[in-house]
Write a structure and sequence with these properties.
441 residues; mainly alpha; 17 helices; 0% strand; globular
Length: 441
């Protein structure tokens, strides 16, 4: 391909366009994911639908269960219809599902809306990561994915402001109507988002892919042989051969505790802070600060892991997360609490990603994708369990134990990933496929 400045500029503009569109889509993903936790204190205080704490925990788990389904099926669906079409479908699904929540008149209908939203949310993120990986400029894939992931936490920040500005004066339904607005973004994706080059190549549409790649001076992905069911089964069995079973189980347990912590705190942070005596406005401000910490954490964790090793950083990060989450159970001065919430966000949101980095580094190239995928899949059961656990504790009158329970999950992940790192005798293998690590989140 030509390396003229004009083509290079067009390639950069295309990469910026794709990354920008995907960033906005993930922003809406984060808004829809966090909006439930942001309006939950109001729902419980006003006893909307007669909602109880244990029902609220169940509703939080419905969305994460939907995310599990969406994440597990995204790859198969994308292989059939294309990544662009899947992204559009996911945005459409979680936007319409928010409309169901906004119009719901019962817990059952609201729960259906959250489950359907979860399917769209779970399918969007890995698809968007694959898209930006295709179009990222040479040598910038990792940093591009890191920037994309900041959109999810920016959505969390937006959810807190939406709740803060609308819930009290207008009502909680208005917050979910805001989450329907991404439907207006669908025509933009239809018109401006190009199809994934990897999908075009895999589907044998090589000429179409080559024309697009040449036009914008984007590197054309190499064609790869399609894996058979036997190949996938062999890769799965490889996770348990030769004593690898203990390592695999340790990684799965660490991932379970990590995502239990991530989604448990994301769902219950405002409600638990209200229980500690903070006003609703302050409790929602903590959501903003927490997600600001998440943005910073995503940007610094990779650099720290490169210097000190992903397993070590993951273990230390989980230990610091556990300390931070436990401290939130103590009513401190607001300024001090803000600092603790920010630092907890820094460590919590990137500790889980470091588990995937550890698995990827210590896996062989032929089963790396399988190892990371199954570690993520097992962890997502923790994502379902975390919101439910918080609801059960509050329903039993043990809300004070909420932060303690989540802190113990962080300690368990620290122990499991630490033992796995100590038991591993493999030399670290650097992977360039860093999109696998973040997509699993």
């Amino acid at each position: 391909m030509s390396s003229s400045p004009a083509l290079s500029a067009r390639g950069s503009r295309l990469a910026l366009l794709v990354v920008g569109l995907c960033w906005l889509a993930v922003l809406f993903d984060g808004l829809d994911m966090f909006i439930y936790g942001s309006v939950l204190p109001h729902l419980l205080e006003t006893k909307t639908f007669g909602l109880t704490a244990d029902q609220a925990g169940d509703l939080g788990s419905y969305a994460t269960f939907g995310m599990l389904v969406g994440a597990l099926t995204a790859g198969t669906v994308a292989d059939r219809i294309g990544r662009k079409q899947l992204m559009i479908g996911c945005v459409t699904l979680f936007s319409l599902a928010s409309g169901i929540c906004a119009m719901s008149g019962s817990v059952a209908v609201f729960g259906l809306g959250r489950t359907l939203a979860g399917v769209g949310l779970g399918g969007l993120l890995p698809t968007a990561i694959s898209m930006v990986s295709d179009y990222a400029r040479g040598g910038r894939v990792a940093i591009t994915i890191g920037m994309l992931m900041t959109a999810h936490h920016a959505g969390g920040i937006l959810s807190a402001y939406v709740a803060k500005w609308l819930v009290e004066p207008v009502g909680w339904r208005a917050a979910f109507w805001v989450c329907v607005l991404p439907l207006l973004f669908v025509p933009v994706l239809l018109k401006f988002l190009p199809e994934s080059l990897s999908f075009l190549v895999a589907k044998g549409r090589g000429e179409e892919a080559r024309t697009l790649a040449d036009r914008y001076e984007v590197e054309l992905p190499a064609a790869t042989g399609k894996k058979t069911a036997a190949d996938r089964w062999d890769a799965m069995l490889g996770l348990f051969r030769g004593g690898e079973w203990s390592q695999t189980l340790l990684y799965w347990l660490a991932s379970f505790g990590g995502l239990l912590l991530v989604y448990g705190v994301a769902t219950w942070l405002p409600t638990l802070m209200r229980g500690e005596g903070y006003e609703l406005g302050s409790a929602l401000t903590f959501v903003v600060v927490f997600n600001l910490g998440g943005i910073v954490g995503m940007l610094v964790a990779g650099r720290a892991a490169d210097r000190f090793g992903a397993p070590r950083i993951s273990a230390v990060w989980f230990a610091l997360t556990a300390v931070g989450v436990y401290l939130l159970s103590i009513h401190m001065a607001t300024g001090v609490t803000m600092v603790v919430v920010f630092l907890t966000g820094v460590f919590l949101n990137s500790a889980q990603t470091m588990i995937y980095a550890t698995v990827s580094i210590r896996s062989t190239p032929d089963n790396r994708a399988t190892a990371v995928g199954w570690t993520s899949g097992m962890g997502r059961f923790g994502a379902v369990f975390g919101p439910w656990l918080g609801g059960q504790l509050l329903a039993a009158g043990n809300g004070d134990w909420g932060f303690t329970a989540f802190a113990l999950a962080g300690v368990s992940s620290m122990v499991f990933i630490g033992i796995a790192a100590l038991r591993s005798a493999r030399q670290p293998q650097r992977s360039n496929d860093q999109e696998e690590l973040v997509a699993a989140h």
